[in-house]
Hints:
By secondary structure, this protein is α/β, with parallel strands linked by helices. The protein has helices at residues 4-12, 16-22, 30-38, 66-72, 108-120, 138-144, 158-164, 201-204, 227-241, and strands spanning 24-28, 43-48, 61-63, 81-86, 98-103, 125-129, 152-156, 169-178, 188-193, 209-212.
Amino acid sequence: MVSKNQIKLITSLVQKKYRKQHQLFFAEGEKVIDELLKANFELDSLYITKPMFEGVLDSKKILISDSDLNKISALSNANDSLAVFKIPEQKPIQNHGLIVGLDDIRDPGNFGTIIRLCDWFGISQIICSEQTVDLYNPKVIQATMGSIARVSVNYIDLEKYLSKSELQIFGTFMDGENIYKKKLPNDGIIIFGNEANGISKNIELLVNQKVAIPRFGNLQRTESLNVATATAIILSEFKRMN
Length: 242
């Protein structure tokens, strides 16, 4: 059985203010939960509809019905498991290698996909403006498909950080240099901007390398690419060049 208090707590974690208050978040599905457990995220409690996760202490596991899982799930179709984890402290930023910077990304699906892309391309660090969607939003967690376990994410004063950084700062702009014709380094910060407005003016002033993905269509009428799609292309080209 899952108690009313447990249901109330877990469903409250959909909202950022309660995640912050309790310092907890939840993840759903065996794959995502398993990735977080392997990465030593601290487990608070685990709700399962069948025997699973043999390595987890029985005292942490609560066997519940499908209907109870539906009550606490944030998914349209609940999976077979939901785990509540403690939010870890941010890791220090390592000022070397390729770093992805996110300037006010608002869509949870985009953010989660970008984390997964960073994992795929071997980018271990993301720095985010304080306005970027919360990492522990359930939709972000699900979209990462477990990659949250391998990519470090920091929320910072992005403008202040960039103003002091000695790394080259790349920004994605419609009028930037053709990414396919540019020599790209092993180290640098690659900034991606808000879905509707792009990179903000204050951050743009700190960018010293503007790059663009050229349009190849005959009519040239497509206004922009989805930010996660653009991230995939840009990261692929950085890695191809190095």
